[in-house]
Amino acid sequence: MTRIALALAALLAGVALVGAACGGEDEATDTTTETTADTTADTTTDTTEPIDAAVGLKGSVGPGFEISLSTQDGAAVTSLPAGSYELEIEDLSTAHNFHLTGPGDVDVMSEVGEEGTENVTVDLVPGEYTFVCDPHASTMRGTFEVS
């Protein structure tokens, strides 16, 4: 999660610099951008507002004992509206997997012993969903609600 926050901060700073350079006005303008990052190592998700179903999701596991589900822009997911989502699973360790289960027969996972990225479409219906690393399910897990 920290890498995503840092990458987002760098991207925002770059956009602010480009915008300032291309302003077209000779008057001085204030282009201050404030960015905050959550640096906690919590393996559960942070509270966010529900997102639009058109936004893609990213499930990430490893390389340490970290697992997360976020929007493609890095916001942690705790609730979503029902709908169809493109889920990118990024498995960064051969010791872990990312396993998403929930209502509507959702059962999607990466394989333990393999690293890599894969994309799947998931149809989420109302209810509670769980994502875990199967070998470390007691500590590497998270949940979110779909309404």
Give your account of this protein's structure.
This protein has 147 residues and is an alpha+beta fold. The protein folds into 2 domains: 1-39, no CATH class; 40-146, Cupredoxins -  blue copper proteins (Immunoglobulin-like, Sandwich). It has 1 helix and 9 strands, in the order αβββββββββ. It has one helix at residues 2-21; strands spanning 57-61, 67-71, 79-80, 83-91, 99-102, 106-109, 116-124, 127-132, 141-146. The chain has a 5-stranded mixed beta sheet, with no helix packed on it. A hairpin with a 3-residue loop joins β5 and β6 (106-109). The longest helix is centred in the N-terminal third of the chain and has 20 residues, at 2-21.
List the total number of helices. 1
Main sheet: strand order:
3-9-8-5-6
Distance between the termini: 25 Å
CATH class of the largest domain: Mainly Beta
CATH structural fold name of the largest domain: Immunoglobulin-like
The CATH superfamily of the largest domain appears as Cupredoxins -  blue copper proteins
What number of structural domains do the residues give?
2
The ordered string of helix (H) and strand (E) elements is HEEEEEEEEE
Catalogue the unreliable spans. Answer: 1-48
